[in-house]
Amino acid sequence: MNHADWTKVPTLDGRHARLEPLQMAHIDGLRGALGDGSLSALWYAQVPSAKTMTAYVQAALHDQAAGKALPFAVLDADGNVVGSTRYYALEEEVPRLSIGYTWYGPHAQRTGVNTEAKLMLLTHAFERLECISVAFETSSHNAASRAAIARLGATQEGVLRNHKRHPDGSPRDTIVFSIIDSEWQGVKRALQDRLDAHA
Fold first, then answer.
1. Mean pLDDT of 105-129
2. pTM of whole model > 0.90?
């Protein structure tokens, strides 16, 4: 494993999705992916609005420059920008990381995009970065996100009470999930089976 792997955002290609390093050039595509804007209106979700998208991307790139995150733009099979995700809480010495800040536009939801994106992100984390643990965090109020993480095969570890704040400023209880290296092959097979169902 090369240390540069922890500082450079990889490009990950699949049949349904392509993950590429987030750039300022993706801003217009990300704005378009928001659709009617209802995603941004969810008070418990960390989805930027069209108005805040530039600041959102700038903050992600700042975190990347500081060694805190590896942010991606997510594209569909047609090359359209459909959302964003990132690695964060990078701990190369363990090694472990978290996957989050994930959102997709309405047209990409319930397609093979998210399943394949998670499969590629987890494969890179466990097989390239040699992680022993990958974590996911979400608001206790975000039932859809909690269900989606559980469907990945992740185990709920616990609740961090008043851990952060929601976009509206209210305190957020964070639900923490993880997948560890000994579970990875089983999770991988299940994700591949789900992906095949989208073919």
1. 93
2. yes
